[in-house]
Amino acid sequence: TDRQNRQVAVFGAGYIGLVTSACLAELGHRVVLRDIDPEKVRILLAGDVPIYEPGLGDMIARNKERLRFTLDLDEALEGAEVAYVCVDTPPSVSGDADLSRVWSVVRSLAGAAHLRAVVVKSTVPVGTGARARAALDEAGLTGTGYVSNPEFTAEGRAVSDFMNPDRIVIGSDDPAAAALVAGLHEGIDAPVVTMDVRSAEMVKLASNALLATRISFANEIATLCENTGADAMEVLGAVGLDHRLGPHFLRPGIGWGGSCFPKDSEALRQSASNTGFHPMLLSAVIDVNNIQKRRAVQKLKDVLGDLAGREIALLGMAFKPGTDDMREAPSTVLASRLAAEGAHVRCWDPLARQGEAEPWLSATRYASPDEALDGADAAVVVTEWPQLKDVDWARAAAAMRRPVLFDGRNLLDPVRMRELGFTYMSVGRP
Ligand code: UGA
After folding, report:
1. Which of 18, 228, 241, 372 could serve as 366's disulfide partner, Cβ 3.0–4.6 Å?
2. In the CATH scheme, what is the code of domain 2-195?
């Protein structure tokens, strides 16, 4: 139908823009994805994907008739009915989201009065839509509707999250634009929740804040369990069986990271502070997480004493398995804390992107967990890569200088690891 054959311009070829473009093309729309980074566009035109995301490459390849990539603004806007803003909103010095890329896209739409809707998918502070509305009016797009359509996909499963969402949130003061954008999702079986722009903006921030709250809560309970001899996995498993609470996002670990939770929770906290309101619960959620990332170092010191000159293996560097993303990964805090203690950091990760900054500057990267473990004084499971279950831990215990292991993700069996001779510590388990 006509509803499944819209012409869409997507701005920003990052995680959200790429997934949105591929999925809209999969749904039958004609999509032109525009980015200002020549390297990203070159990679896409060469048939590759600049990020690691399962299923994305295949989806792009099978929709290549309906999916174009360009550096050229006019090519993106020509004939477009809907423009999606998918640029990133990184933290600024103050902790507020830096919206400069959003404004630059909005300004670039000047003259494109044929657009029927401008959709912001980027995560933005509440009130951004009102400012965008004013900017669009100023740019002559008075007849173009504004829509906030926040994104709830998680990295590593973004394609399937987009195609099978729990809900589609559409915030708009313009019923026609809201209906048009809702219609773009035809073929997806999910409730469409329509509301005003500010509320839609807040849904995204509140959702991420509550998910982060559950994890910080689980981490705090895990510490209480360590201090009392209870087993956090038993406790939280049983807590999650209450249907009012549910089992998800209660897994204790080494702290939450990634491109969203740290940035979004801090931005929400700062926007509250900007109005003179101190959000106590949200602040505590952030504090608990900052402490959680540092507890690993103390646990190693409890066993090894002074860490100066020690060889410490970090197993897993990406902020979670299934991604190459290092943004706000707990491994970065851990590596630089260990370096500050004078330890030498050895690391392994199957995918993580190696940047110029910490932790890579002070660490040596190894191609396999075995190589990182050989001769190490201690090791930390930082990211629960499934490969780590298959490590020959009996061999590792013999090959390490000292078989000390902090399992920051409760990935391994404590009984078995101790049988193998490890001084084994985990999160919230005796
Ligand atoms: C998160 C949200 O889950 C998505 O719904 C949201 O759309 C996205 O942010 C976003 O704002 O774009 P993501 O950052 O990809 O997605 O990662 P998650 O899978 O949610 O994990 C976040 C962090 O929490 C990871 O460091 C993970 O290890 C940690 N975590 C997660 C735990 O420590 N325990 C848990 O039980 C779950």
Report:
1. 372
2. 3.40.50.720
301 CB neighbour count, 10 Å cutoff: 14
Q: Tokens 């997934």 — which residue? A: 19
Task: Give the start-end residues of each E strand in 204-249.
Answer: none
Question: What are the start-end ranges of the H helices in 305-409?
Answer: 330-340, 369-373, 393-399
Distance between CA atoms of residues 115 and 35, nearest Å: 19
Residue with tokens 């049983």: 238
pLDDT-above-90 percentage for the chain? 94
Probe target for ligand 1 pocket from 153, 254, 410, with the most ligand atoms within 8 Å of CB: 153
CA 89 to chain centre: 13
Peptide bond into 191 cis (omega under 30): no
Instruction: Give tens-digit pLDDT for 268-317.
Output: 999 999 999 999 999 999 999 999 999 999 999 999 999 999 999 999 99
Instruction: Find the mean pLDDT for residues 11-29.
Output: 97
Pick the range with the lowest mean pLDDT from 52-56, 133-137, 350-354, 413-417.
350-354
Instruction: Please provide residue 217's backbone torsions phi and psi, each rounded to the nearest 5 degrees.
Output: -60, -45
pLDDT-derived band at 357, boundaries 50, 70, 90: low
Residue boundaries of the structural domains of the chain: 2-195, 261-426
Angle at 122 between CA 120 and CA 125, to 5 degrees: 95
Cα–Cα distance measured from residue 388 to residue 316, given in angstroms and rounded to the nearest whole number: 9
> Do strands 82-85 and 168-172 pair parallel, antiparallel, or not at all (unpaired)?
unpaired
State yes or no: is 260 an active-site residue.
yes
Which residue is closest in CA terms to ligand 1's atom 20?
Answer: 154
Q: How far does the centroid of ligand 1 lie from the alpha carbon of residue 18, in Å? A: 19
Q: Domain 261-426 carries which CATH code?
A: 3.40.50.720
Token look-up 């044929």 returns: 114
- The one catalytic residue among 23, 86, 225, 260: 260
Is 70 within 8 Å of 42 (Cβ atoms)? no
Sole residue written with tokens 């401008």: 118
Domains 2-195 and 261-426 share a fold: yes
Q: Tokens in use for 156?
A: 């590593």
